[in-house]
Amino acid sequence: MACTPICYALSQRKVTEPTPIQRQAIPVVLEGRDMLASAQTGTGKTAGFTLPMLQRLTAGPRPGKRQVRALVLTPTRELAAQVGDSVSTYGQHLALRSHIIFGGVGQQPQIDALKAGLDVLIATPGRLLDLHQQGHIDLSAVEILVLDEADRMLDMGFIHDIKRLLRLVPKSVKTCCSLQPSPMRYKPWLNSCWITRL
Length: 198
Known about the structure:
It is a single chain. By secondary structure, the chain is an alpha/beta fold. It has one domain (17-196): P-loop containing nucleotide triphosphate hydrolases (Rossmann fold, 3-Layer(aba) Sandwich), CATH 3.40.50. The protein is built from nine helices and seven strands, in the order H-H-E-H-E-H-E-H-E-H-E-H-H-E-H-E. It has helices at residues 5-12, 20-30, 45-59, 77-90, 108-116, 125-133, 150-155, 159-166, 187-190; strands spanning 35-38, 70-73, 98-101, 120-123, 144-147, 174-179, 196-197. A seven-stranded parallel beta sheet has the order 3-4-2-5-6-1-7, sandwiched between helices. GO terms for molecular function: ATP binding; hydrolase activity; nucleic acid binding; RNA helicase activity. It comes from Vreelandella sulfidaeris.
């Protein structure tokens, strides 16, 4: 059986077995269900959503114009860079284009990347909203939304930004939320979505 591009990327990284959180999360995302996963740093949770996200993007039909179909929101630029590395590593043999957007740096390179067309966008909420308000980004084609470390985003006061961004993506979007352990204080807010808890 021929090795898929994602499998080939995994083999290059010497990855042979999924971690427990990946074993639980990957089938849920591939099936197109909403998901809430709680896992410690270092358990492989990032690959747990990037791998099936990339698989779904390559399996589904691509619109004529390259549009953002997967959006990953993170609380910090450091985490955005980590997710970006994961997408680049596992998607290196795929015909997908990704970019990272965060504050504290010049906007023009980010605007240029958006104009060129992206499949996967990794962003912090504030800068993403700034660029949307300036008319540089369209989120109407998003199929998969990931809130990585959603609890940290809420702790940092991003709840209103997240609510605004949720109104910009289609209602049919599939949502993956990752949390640090002990997310119970966020249960009322997260229960507003149909979510499979892991």
